[in-house]
Amino acid sequence: MTSAKSSRGAVDDATPRLAAVVAPAATPAAPAATQLERRIRPAQIAVIGLFVIAAMGAIWWAKPFLLPVVASIVLATLLAPIVAWLEAMHAPRALGSLIVIAVVVVLLFVAIEFMLEPLARLLDTIPAMESLLTRLLRASRHLFGEPFADWLKARFGEFAAQQSGAVSAGLFAGIVGGSVGVGTVLLLTFFLLASGDHFLQKLVRVIPRIRDKMNAVRIVRTVQGEVSHYFLTVTIINIALGAVVGLICWYFALPNALLWGSLVTALNYLPYIGPIVNCVLLATASAAHFSSLGEALVVPLLFAGITIIEGQLITPAIVGKRVALNPVVVFAGLLFWGWLWGVPGMMLAIPLLLVAKIWAQHTAALEQWAEFLGPDSRNGDGAT
User: Fold this and answer.
1) CA-based Rg of the chain, rounded to a whole angstrom?
2) pLDDT tens digits, 152-167
């Protein structure tokens, strides 16, 4: 009994000493871990920032290779449902792909032939731009005085002299480069369409888990459906908008109504930026053709009103939330890809954002990014 009490007392006496020994060693551990985390976080941010900068530099440097590849993947995604329909009609996939590409080539040649005459008539209206320049110089003389008007006239003369030969050379180089780029994209698109689900099958084989395999297939199928739906709907809307604008130009006797309608159709694929460019072009053409200010403002103001109705009412009602994107993200994406790849990059910005949104919606770790890119377009499917 006495020994048990003495041992218990020894333990009780040893407990404060052990606590005193352990406590000083454990107390500095928390501040040390906090200091380590504070050192690691800036390093991680710096590494991520350097990686992003290096990735943007690589994308810009590899533009001659990446641009046709990305464009062909987007075009193949758009045309894949048509090839699948031909394949369901018992046509070989390679033959169906060849037929689809041949139809695209024919449509391109028809469009070029269709636009040659309006472009030739536009060149005939260049002297009308001289009258517009005269009006601008007259207005600057009244507003800012004779010295400023003379200086502005001299600058216009120098610019015209410098660009007299550069315009034709740049136009020829642009036509040649564009033809080569379009041919490359169409050839790559044919191979992608003819291969069918070959790349998807390879991807599924590489992925280890069955759940991830099913998610990859779901993402690819959803991307094909949503991107095709978006471009088909937007193409119909843009053609209707171009037809209405062309009729307005024809009714108010603005020359080259067919050309202006076609430009409106083509540039309206660029949200926000395309309508602004169209409005500026129509305002310039109207100012060069009509003599009074009221007549010059009719066409651009009508175009602005129709574009607002189309952009704020018609397109959201038809497209809906299936492919809805955050407007800020869309504008930033247009600026970013335009800065990297120019006008072709701006044309590819929306499909790339759609792919990123769908991918994020089907990935649990990226759900916050999906919410940032736009509202959820799924019908009850959860991220996996």
Assistant:
1) 31
2) 666 666 665 555 555 5
Report how far apart, in Å, the C-alpha atoms of 333 and of each of 65, 86, 270, 275 are.
20, 35, 11, 17
Q: Cα 182 vs. chain centroid, distance in angstroms?
A: 18
Closest CA to 212 of 361, 358, 357, 363: 363
Query: 3-class SS at 384?
Result: coil
The 10s digit of each residue's pLDDT in 309-342 is 888 788 777 766 556 777 888 888 888 888 888 8
- Among 232, 242, 10, which residue's Cα sits nearest to residue 111? 242
DSSP designation for 375: S
**Shortest CA distance to 321 belongs to which of 236, 371, 378?**
378
The stretches of the chain forming alpha helices (DSSP H) are 2-26, 29-61, 63-88, 93-124, 126-144, 146-195, 198-206, 210-251, 257-267, 273-289, 293-309, 315-319, 327-361, 367-373
